[in-house]
Amino acid sequence: MKVIGVIPARYKSSRFPGKPLVNICGKPMIWWVYQQCLKVDKLNEIYVATDDERIKETCEELSINVIMTSSEHQTGSDRVGEVATKVEGDLFINIQGDEPLIDPREIEEVIDIFEDESVEFGSLRIEITDPEEISAYSTVKVVVDKHSDALYFSRNIIPSNKKDGPMARVFRHVGIYAYKKDFLLKFVSMPQTELELGEGIEPLRAMENGYKIRVKETKYSSIGVDYPEHVKLVEDIIKKRSGGKVK
To answer: Is 185 helix (H, G, I), strand (E, B) or coil?
Structure first.
C-alpha cells in the first residue's frame, strides 16, 4: 500500500490568522509538523496542501513538498481529497497542520488500523479524565462500539454518565484521519450534512451516509496551537527536549 501524508494548511483563520507561518524557535510551524512526519517510515510521500501563495513560497524555500489546492474547500478532508486526484496513492493521511509536536507514533497507529482490510476510514481516540477537558466545548468526544467503530461524535459530554452505577470511560477524538483513496473521493463528493454542520465534526458526514469509521484507542497525543498564547507552550517543550540548544 502506498501511503501519502497530507498536511492541510490555510492562512485565514478566525482565531489565529497566518498560523502555519508563525515563528516557533526560528522556524515556521508548518516546518515543525513536516519534520515530525518525516520520522514516519510508513509514509511514502508527504505534502503540504494549501491555497495560499505565502505558505507555498515558504514551503518551497524550506524544501517542503507543497501542492496548491482550491480556495473553495470547506474542510481539511476536502483539501486532502483534491490532493488524492493529483497524487498516486492507496491510503491518504490527513495530518493537522497546527500540531508541531505531533508524535510520529500517532501517525503510525492510524496507518496500522488498515491492517483490517474492511476499514475504509480511520482515526484515533484517547481516554480523558480531567473534568474541565471533558466538559469543554472545544473537546470533541467520541463513543464507539465493541469493534471500535464510532457510534457518535459530539462537543457535548458523551456518554453523559448521569445514572448511578459504574461510570463509562470518556474519550477525546484525536484529530488525525486516514482514508482509502476510493472512499476519500466518495466522501468529499458528499454534501455536508446536518449533524456535521451542527456539531462542526467532519466524520459525521460519513456516518450520516451509512459509512463506518474505525477509531482506535491510543495513548499518544500532542498540543495543538489554537491561539497565539499556545506558541510559547510549544517553544518551551521544544527547548526542553533539545536541552536548550534551540533558541
So the answer is: helix
Q: Which helix (H) or strand (E) element contains residue 236? A: helix 230-241
Mean pLDDT of the chain: 94
207-217: pLDDT as tens digits: 999 999 999 99
Q: What is the CATH number of the domain that holds 6?
A: 3.90.550.10
Cα Rg for the chain, rounded, in angstroms? 18
Is beta strand 66-68 parallel, antiparallel or unpaired with respect to 45-50?
parallel
Residue span of the structural domain in which 31 resides: 1-102+226-247
Three cell numbers at 56?
507555498
What pLDDT, on a 0 to 100 scale, did the predictor assign at position 166?
A: 76
Residue 130 predicted with pLDDT over 90: yes
C-alpha cell at 133: 477537558
Question: Comparing C-alpha atoms, which of 61, 36, 33 is closest to residue 48?
Answer: 33
